[in-house]
From TrEMBL:
<dbReference type="InterPro" id="IPR027417">
    <property type="entry name" value="P-loop_NTPase"/>
</dbReference>
<dbReference type="Pfam" id="PF00005">
    <property type="entry name" value="ABC_tran"/>
</dbReference>
<dbReference type="GO" id="GO:0005524">
    <property type="term" value="F:ATP binding"/>
</dbReference>
<dbReference type="InterPro" id="IPR017871">
    <property type="entry name" value="ABC_transporter-like_CS"/>
</dbReference>
<keyword id="KW-0547">Nucleotide-binding</keyword>
<protein>
    <submittedName>
        <fullName>Phospholipid/cholesterol/gamma-HCH transport system ATP-binding protein</fullName>
    </submittedName>
</protein>
<dbReference type="InterPro" id="IPR003593">
    <property type="entry name" value="AAA+_ATPase"/>
</dbReference>
<feature type="domain" description="ABC transporter">
    <location>
        <begin position="2"/>
        <end position="238"/>
    </location>
</feature>
<keyword id="KW-0067">ATP-binding</keyword>
<dbReference type="GO" id="GO:0016887">
    <property type="term" value="F:ATP hydrolysis activity"/>
</dbReference>
<keyword id="KW-0813">Transport</keyword>
<dbReference type="InterPro" id="IPR003439">
    <property type="entry name" value="ABC_transporter-like_ATP-bd"/>
</dbReference>
Length: 272
């Protein structure tokens, strides 16, 4: 689990994060959502230590990451996998070499053992016949898969993903979302995803954190979001009439499927 406890961050006289606290749980896809400039990336960078907080704490499984020096942070950093926007692959390396890179840096295993692990990860993300290809020779969706394979090659306990669907078509986005979610559950990873994609929110959001002007405005699951009455959240997620209608339809469906009673039935709404 990653605990974010009362963190604050300003740049000059501009406050970016105002007293944010949140727990990111293992085996869950924890999504950070919010408008451009609301502080999502700064929050994520504070969590991995790329930006130093002004006050507050970040704890990794109970260990106070913010109180550690660089040497003390190293073992935790080795347990963090990262997937950046645009996948950030090395253009001059093949797919295989890209995934091997973290192992070359941190593993003392023999080449054969490392290559076996590379192949396992390639198989896990369902990438076939791409080992010897260069990033320029594969599609955006395949690049994401390579990025995911590289992010999990060291068996991370924590996975940070920035905008997994940027530049992908809706269908490929769903496949990538599912892959991230499946891997999270399978390896019990604490996954933190920064996203603008409402499909991701509705499909993979076990735990959603909505940021508004540097504050944690709302948190809950993709099911809770249907029933949320936070005006700012609703304005953000269900901005268009189309999405508003879908929300109402989904709400009605969920009431029906789960046997909840609605006010429409002439009774008080009740969820159990
Ligand atoms: N290193 C920095 N120095 C000064 N200001 C910064 C720095 N990094 C971020 N900011 C400011 O912090 C605010 C929040 O930025 P952040 O990148 O977290 O937004 P975001 O919610 O991730 O937006 P987007 O969805 O567009 O990526 C912005 O006003 C940005 O200009």
């Amino acid at each position: 689990m990653i605990e974010v406890i009362n963190i604050r961050k300003s740049f000059g006289d501009k406050t970016i994060l105002q007293d944010v606290s949140v727990n990111m749980e293992p085996g869950k896809t924890n999504l950070i959502i919010g408008a451009s400039g609301s502080g999502k990336t700064v929050l994520m960078k504070c969590m991995v230590g790329l930006i130093e907080v002004d006050s507050g704490k970040i704890k990794y499984d109970g260990q106070d990451f913010t109180a550690m020096d660089d040497k003390e942070k190293k073992p935790i950093r080795q347990e963090i996998g990262m997937l950046f926007q645009g996948s950030a692959l090395f253009d001059s390396m093949t797919v295989e070499q890209n995934i091997m890179f973290p192992l070359d840096m941190f593993s003392k295993e023999k080449y054969k053992v490392r290559m076996k692990r590379v192949q396992e990860c390639l198989d896990r993300v369902n990438l076939k016949d791409a080992n010897k290809k260069f990033p320029a020779e594969i599609s955006g969706g395949m690049k994401k898969r390579v990025g995911i394979a590289r992010a999990i090659v060291l068996n991370p306990k924590y996975l940070f993903v920035d905008e997994p669907n940027s530049g992908l078509d809706p269908q490929t986005s769903l496949v990538i979302d599912k892959l991230i979610k499946d891997i999270t559950v399978e390896y019990n990873i604490t996954t933190v995803v920064n996203t603008h994609d409402m499909n991701t929110v509705m499909e993979s959001g076990d735990h959603i954190i909505y940021m508004h002007q540097g504050l944690k405005q709302w948190e809950g699951s993709n099911e809770d979001i249907i029933f949320a009455d936070d005006q700012k959240l609703n304005d953000f997620i269900f901005a268009s009439e189309f999405f508003q209608d879908i929300k109402e339809m989904r709400k009605t469906e969920m009431f029906r499927d789960k046997g909840w009673r609605t006010k429409k039935d002439g009774e008080n709404s009740s969820r159990t």
